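ok trying again, last paste got cut off:
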Amino acid sequence: MVYAAAENRYDRLPYRRVADSGLILPALSFGLWRNLGDQKTLANSREVMLKAFDNGIFSFDNASNYGPSNGSAEATFGAVYQSDLKPYRNELVITTKAGYHMWPGPLGEFSGKKTLTAALDMSLTRMHLDYVDIFYAHRWDPNTNLRETAEALDLLVRQGKALYVGVSNYDAAQTAAIAEIFAELHTPFIGNQVSYNMLNREPEATGLLDVLDQNHAGLIAYGPLAEGLLTDRYLDGIPADFPLHRSNDFIAKDPEGTVAKLNALNQVAAKRGQTLAQLAMAWLLRDARVASIVIGASSVDHLLDNIKVADNMQLDAEELATIDTILNR
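nice, full thing came through this time. structure:
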C-alpha cells in the first residue's frame, strides 16, 4: 500500500488533545473488538487497518480478550504492525486493556497485580511491541483492593511497558477513587473508555465527564453507534434478537420508542446532508472532554463512510436543542 504523505494524512481527520496532557488522539480511533481478530482474513484486516491509517486514524484500540478468541485481535494487529506499520511507531497510539476473561484459571481475569502484569506482557508479545501508549484496567474489580490495581498500573508505567494508564467501564465514583490514588502516585492517568452514544448518555447523567475533567483526563467513547442502531438499518424496527451490548440493554424495554427516535434523528441528519451514523459521531465530538470515539469497521467502505463525519462536525444550538428534544421523549 502507498501511504499518504504525513502532512496530507493528518489533514483528513481532526485530532484532539486529551485534556491538558501531551497525548493527542484522532477524533476517530480504530477498534479491533468484534470486526477483525479471527473472524476475518488477515488480508481483509490489513486492508482496512492500513486504509484507516492512510486517512488519519493513527490510534488503534485493542484488549486481551478481543477476537473473539482471546488474543486473536492483538495477534492480527501485530501481524499488520510487523508487515506495514512498524516504521510509523512514533506516529501511532496503540492501546490495550486487561480484565475480562483472558486465559483459564482464577488469575485469568480482573485486575490483580499478577494478572495485569502477565496480561500486558502477553499483549506486548502478540503485538510485537516494546510498550503500549495506554494500558487500561478493563473493568472494575470488586475483589481486589483498589490501591493494588492502581499501584500495579503505576509500576507498569515505571517499567516502561506503558506511557499512560486508564480505566474502562468504571463509573463516576470508581473513577474518582482510583484517580485520587493515581494523583498521590503521580501516575499518568489519561482517561476512561466507556460506552457513550446518543441513546446511552450515562456519562453525562452520572457526572463521569466532570470527574474526568477535574482529574485532567478524557473520555474515550466506545459503542458510538449503539451496536449499529444509530444507522439507517433499523428505521423500520429492531429485531427481537438484536445483540444489544449490556450498556444499552435498557433499549429492549421500549424498542418502538427507540425506533421513533431513530427516525426523528435521521431526519435531522438528512437536513445536514449526513447519515444518521455520521450525525451520531458528530454529536459525541461536540464535547471537548470526549478525546476520541472508537469505531469498528470490517470493510473499507464502512470505514470511509465513518470518516466522512469530518466533512460536517459542527452542530449549531438549534440542532442540539432539536436532538435533545428527540432523545428526551
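cool. The CA atoms of residues 60 and 94 lie 5 Å apart. The radius of gyration is 19 Å.
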